[in-house]
Amino acid sequence: MTEFEPRIIGFLCNWCSYAGADLAGVSRFQYPPNIRIIRVMCSGRVDPPLVLGLLAEGVDGILITGCHIGDCHYISGNLQTKRKFTLIKRLAEKAGLEPGRLRLEWVSAAEGQRFAQLVKEFTDQVRVLGSSLLSGDKPDPDLLLNMRAAGAAAEDSRLRALVGKEEKLVSEGNVYGEQITQEDFDEVMTGAVDAEFARHRIRLALLEEPMSVKELSERLGMEPRRVVEHIVAMRQRGWVDTQEIRGSSPIYRALEVP
Amino acid sequence: MAEKEEAPRVGVFVCHCGINIGGFVNVPTVVEYANSIPGVVYAEANLYTCSSDGIDKIKEAIKKHNLNRVVVASCTPRTHEPLFQSTCEEAGLNKYLFEMANIRDQCSWVHMHEPEEATEKAKDLVRMAVAKACLLSPQEEPEIEVNPVALVIGGGLSGMTSAMSLAEQGFKVHLVEKQSELGGMLLRLKKLFPLEQESSAILKQKIEAVRSNPNIRVYTNSKVRFVKGFVGNFDVEIESQKGEVESLGVGTIIVATGADVLEPKGLYSYGEDKRVVTQMQLEEMLETGDLKGVHTVVMIQCVGSRNEERPYCSRICCNEALKNAILLKKSDASREVYILYRDLQTYEFYYPSLEGKARDLGVKLIRYLKEMPPQVSPEEDSVAIKVFTPLLDEEMTIKADLVVLSTPLIPREEAKELSRILKVPLDSNGFFMEAHVKLRPLDFATDGIFVCGTAHSPKDVAESTPQALGAASRASIPMARGRLRTAAITAEVDESRCVGCGVCVELCPYNAIQKDEKGIARVTGAVCKGCGVCGASCPERAITMHHFTNEQLESQGIAALGRAAP
After folding, report:
1. A235-241 contacts: CB < 8 A, separation 24 or more?
2. Which of residues 92-131 of A touch B (CB under 8 A)?
3. What ipTM goes with this model?
4. What phi and psi, each to the nearest 5 degrees, are found at residue A47?
5. How many angstroms separate the CA atoms of A62 and B561, rounded?
């Protein structure tokens, strides 16, 4: 086999999609053998850092499938899947990963044929993108740093709290009874994702070696003004401190984050 | 626990499943590969791992090789995990130390033309299962007591049937009806198909039996306003119309709240012309004999159903129309009766005779097309119905004295509220949805809550009755046993990391998480259904989803790449 064969991981909910995949088997609907399926009870259980982490490890594509909206075995779990998937996509995109490596679909227990078709489509889609720059022995160092930053941002309590509260904020409003539109929320989210992603990039870069603002700016392709803003916020959180003053520039180092 | 601290000693059993797996996947190669995976101390192939022979071999190997984890690579955990789990238990191994690799339904059967790739994939799937197995921990299933009292919501035919069945088994039953009298939909029906029995006769018998049974307490003009707790131990509040609230403890709950009939406002001049009625109104007219001067009757099927808004077939309307057409003919043979239908659904083996009987009596059955529905135009002395009939490929006009619309059963408006109170789902049509259409047709996914009758889907009396008896039987199981073990796949909060933000409390679809007096989130294991949404959402990542932990899922993913977990 000379053609590139992508490595794909599928996260399937136990009740609809995994049953749909079983039905594809019972019905003998054939699909490409690239996918490796991991069963979860609910697609809403697929934690963003897990997906981003596996992409950083070099998986070529990840497919998440759950029950159709309204048919969730756990009533509303798949609404959370949608919210979480949006976060995963935003962060992966920030990191510079091709968006086509990720896909979320709803597959019911009765949709064996659709499942087979979907796997075929997704495999083709990933095949066209080619091998992930993070697979193999020599992963692209910049993309790797970015994906690790994306994964760390998805572990960050601020983004997680926002995503966890999104459904309620958008559908019912906040504790003051103010209705929040999806657009307003998205704006807040975009700002938060940008900031957290940038801060984790700085933190990871400083873990590699202590640097000045200028060096960080060059290493990460970030405006010095932005680097300073983030360093200020990161200092307050106890993520960085000054290691030494070189010439007139402080050199920052990353601290162990609890 | 001992198993957790010991190094993993995994046994792998690879099933040929006759030729189902063995015909496409090279099983000996997979066994050989399994033996090379770190942590695996024993691997073998079986012709059928699920046969009694295969089961005995697992038990023997657990003892002989001192296995503390078992992986079976065969079919799907959805059907066979319970069998292999109990095999482990019988051999003294906690059943949560078992993992399955699905190399049939999700491998050999879907890659039948690629035996080499299928074999490689089977190896990967075994490696992934072993990776997870190594990280599994034994889980205990807590045992709880069951209050042998049932709550039946809805005092129609289904609710009364369930209540009677449970009461006859000796359980106390609280039967809650929102109307002032028992009977539900049957109060509005007159004669029931296929045998044209008087619905009032059936109803009278049921109501008397329910009213006189000392084990049943009936609450009319009442509704359930609050439910908390879990199977065996629900706390329920019932509110009467006067606003009196009574608190009860029950062990099981049956939902039998029935359905409504669609009021076809604005369709076919209904509501604008008195000569356009529903089948329900026709029932009344048949009963009161208020059909003077009605010589030509046109019935229209699928009014407001099988369309974009309500895609489902209400199933019972065809039989109801045929039954009423027969009654119209019987009371006056000179009447002209037409039924305009899209597809005639006279299912069940004794019903086709209704259609034959109607035809014999001269009822005219005319098919119409969804794209070209009949047109109803009220005129002074009659109602004109224009319909294109594909059989003759022409349009015909009928002048009718009465137009009868067959409208579907629709979910009750209150179903939404009850679904929220009980934390049970509705399907896309708005009816209550069972846990599994074939495997658990009377249960909700929430243990201890069951469904029957038209609350679940459109049904007739002959279908609702056995479903009601079935739901009562399902509900009696935990109550008769008195104790039960609840699932161990539940979430657990790490107190030291919880900051009390409440995200999990809000997201839990079952109210299984509450904050304690210190503001720390606590999971009630018996209520938790193990979806894991809380764990994937916790800002502090303080929640462990047992049996599907982050580490376990990650190790499976890394193993899929052919590497050992970091």
Report:
1. A239/A199, A239/A203, A240/A202, A240/A203, A240/A206
2. 116
3. 0.95
4. -80, 130
5. 12
Percent of chain A residues past pLDDT 70, beyond the cut: 99
SS3 state at B249:
strand
Instruction: Taking each helix axis as running N to C, give the angle between helix A182-208 and helix A141-155, from 0 to 180 degrees, rounded to the nearest 10.
Output: 120
Residue A168 scores a pLDDT above 50: yes
Using a CB-CB cut-off of 8 Å, the residues of chain A touching B423 are: 75
What is the Cα–Cα distance from B161 to B144, expressed in whole angstroms? 28
Task: Give how far B474 is from chain A: nearest CA, Å.
Answer: 20
* Strand extents, DSSP E, B154-196: 172-176, 191-192
Residue B536 to residue A47, Cβ atoms within 8 A:
yes
A157 closest CB neighbour out of B489, B530, B539 = B539
Taking 3-state DSSP, the helix, strand and coil percentages for chain A, each rounded to the nearest 5, stand at 55, 15, 30
| A183-197: pLDDT as tens digits | 999 999 999 999 999
- Which tens digits make up the pLDDT trace of B340-375? 999 998 876 666 778 889 999 999 999 999 999 999
Residues of chain B found within 8 Å of residue A68, distances taken between Cβ atoms:
428
Any chain B CB within 8 A of the CB of A63?
no
d(CA A37, CA A62): 10
Q: How far is A232 from chain B (nearest CA, A)?
A: 23
Convert the pLDDT of each residue in B26-70 to its tens digit: 999 999 999 999 999 999 999 999 999 999 999 999 999 999 999
For residue B228, the surrounding DSSP H or E stretch is strand B222-230
Instruction: Report the alpha-carbon distance of residue B231 to residue B147 in Å, rounded.
Output: 9
pLDDT at A178 over 90: no
CA distance B203 to B492: 49
Minimal-distance CA residue of chain B relative to A23: B105
Side chain identity at A187, as an amino acid letter? E
For residue A16, list chain B residues with Cβ-Cβ distance below 8 A. none
Q: Is B78 an interface residue toward A (CB < 8 Å)?
A: yes
Q: How many CB pairs under 8 A join A and B?
A: 166
CA distance B25 to B47: 13
Q: In degrees, to the nearest 5, what angle opens at C-alpha B64 toward C-alphas B62 and B66?
A: 55
Where does B283-401 show beta strands of DSSP type E? Answer: 296-300, 336-341, 364-367, 375-378, 383-389, 394-400
What residue ranges in B241-372 does DSSP mark as E strands?
Answer: 245-250, 252-255, 259-261, 276-278, 296-300, 336-341, 364-367
Whether residue B4 is predicted with pLDDT greater than 60 in this model: the reply is: no
Closest CA of chain B from A127, distance in Å = 16
The verdict on a CB contact (< 8 Å) between A30 and B112 is yes
**Nearest C-alpha of chain B: how many angstroms from A22?**
5
Entry pTM: 0.77
Residues B149 and B248: their CA atoms lie apart, in Å, by: 9
pLDDT in tens, B500-555: 999 999 999 889 999 999 999 999 988 899 999 999 999 999 999 999 999 999 99
pLDDT value of residue B423: 81
* Residues of chain A contacting B113 with CB distance shorter than 8 Å: 30
Residue B472 and residue B474: Cα distance in Å, rounded?
5
d(CA A24, CA A188): 41
Query: CA-CA distance, B100 to B84, in Å (whole number)?
Result: 9
